[in-house]
Amino acid sequence: MAMKLLAGVLLIVGLVAGRLSAQPAASKAYILGQIDVTNPTQYAGYTKLTPALIEKFGGRFLARGGRSVSLEGAPARSRVVVVEFPSFDRAQQYFASPEYQAARKLRDGAAQVQFVLVEGQ
């Protein structure tokens, strides 16, 4: 009787574990930024704060102001940034966080920006 009970428990544990492992992984998300810096001195304060904040929310820079060229359409702004986050929700939490909102205030008047959040695969 105990062996049948143990076998039943192991079967249930195996089924649950199989279902958990079959769950799709959360999609990563990316913040894409195009930035024209108009006041480099003021903007430098913003760039000093954001790396630690991005890391705090599980993000990492994939591109940060390197060489870029527009392949089609309007020219890209002078600075292009790509930040990867573990999920769409985590990227939104970063952007809405009080810490990032404080950093944004340092950037106000120092750059014209466009940020887009996109879910990856």
H and E string = HEHEEHHE
Q: Based on helices, strands and strand pairing, what is the structural class?
A: alpha+beta
Gap between N and C termini: 48 Å
**Contiguous runs where pLDDT drops below 50 for at least 5 residues:** 1-17
Sheet bearing the most strands, described?
Answer: 4 strands, antiparallel
Give the strand line-up of the largest sheet.
Answer: 2-3-1-4
Annotation, overall tally of beta strands: 4
Strand content: 15-25%
CATH architecture label:
2-Layer Sandwich
**Residue share in helices?**
40-55%
The top-level CATH class is Alpha Beta
Number of continuous helical runs: 4
Q: What would you report as the Rg, rounded to the nearest angstrom?
A: 22 Å
Shape: globular
**Mean pLDDT, nearest integer?**
85
- Number of self-contained structural domains: 1
Q: Could you tell me the CATH topology label.
A: Alpha-Beta Plaits
At a glance:
Helix content is 47%, strand content 25%.
Structure, explained:
The protein has helices spanning 2-22, 40-56, 88-96, 98-107; strands at residues 29-37, 60-64, 79-85, 111-119. Helix 2 runs antiparallel to helix 4. The chain has a four-stranded antiparallel β-sheet with strand order 2-3-1-4. It has 121 residues and is α+β, with helices and mostly antiparallel strands. It is globular and about 45 Å long. It has a single domain, classed as Alpha-Beta Plaits (2-Layer Sandwich).
